[in-house]
Amino acid sequence: MALSWNKKDGRELRIYENADELSSNLAEYIAELSESSIKERGVFAIALSGGSLITLMGKLCEAPYNKTVDWAKWYIFWADERVVAKSHADSNYKLVKDGFLSKVPIVHSHVHSINDMVTAEQAAEDYEFVIRQLVRTRVISVSEINDCPRFDLILLGMGPDGHVASLFPNHSVLNEKEQWVTFITDSPKPPPERITFTLPVINSASNVAIVVTGASKSEAVHLAIDEIGPDLPELPARMVRPINGDLVWFLDLSAASKIEGVKFSE
Ligand SMILES: O=C1O[C@H](COP(=O)(O)O)[C@@H](O)[C@H](O)[C@H]1O
Questions:
Q1: Which residues, other chains included, contact 186 with Cβ-Cβ below 8 Å and sequence gap of 6+?
Q2: How many Å apart are CA 77 and CA 149, to the nearest integer?
Q3: Phi/psi at 19 (5° precision)
Q4: Boundaries of each Glucosamine/galactosamine-6-phosphate isomerase domain copy (predicted)?
Q5: ipTM of this predicted complex?
Q6: pTM assigned to the model
Q7: Is 166 in the pocket of ligand 1 (CB under 6 A)?
Q8: Is any ligand 1 atom within 6 A of the Cβ of residue 252?
Q9: Residues spanned by the domain of 195
């Protein structure tokens, strides 16, 4: 690892030489959390995002993890989804199916994707209902602070504009406090219709990791992580602060290049 840094506010930064090194360490991090959750609760409830994250978690499908992880105890969710058919190239479900689910033996009935046959509003409502049932049966744990679902791990990517899941800068959904899953029909990044976990759900997880590579995201990483003036626009990645959980940023050197005070050795 190039650098590991615990910020005073509890956030941890793990910065790697390149995407390959990041990938290896991300796989180990996920496998360790899977093991500890299964030991403690008997299951592992993990929410994934789309985008570059899925390629970056690819080493989890390889040795030793393909044999050592207790895949039968995994329950899969999506922190956000595009409201398109599951077979569509824009579908986060399809991305995960092709890049991950097709390579490891996860129980089919443990994979909870959205209903792609209904409107975005209905899909968000249905997905929240599914999550409520699984909180009731304790497949997903519950936050003692606010009754929100407490996922064992939520994995997020971040766009160059600082969006996470489908929470975009200055969008009204950033203020959603009641719903667990909501929808948007005006995503600035296509496709426009999406469902997304809300900030209260993300911030109630036991563990959240934000995984970011590439220089095009370095400015957003700086704005999300560094202490900057009070006039900062609402940047979703900056608003990820688990109340009673751990947040780790996985970054490559390019993505981390504008963080203040980070000095890299040659
Ligand atoms: O649209 C989305 O973008 C973000 C970031 O994607 P990336 O390819 O820049 O890593 C992703 O995390 C989110 O799930 C997806 O819907």
A1: 192
A2: 12
A3: -65, -30
A4: 18-249
A5: 0.98
A6: 0.97
A7: yes
A8: no
A9: 3-256
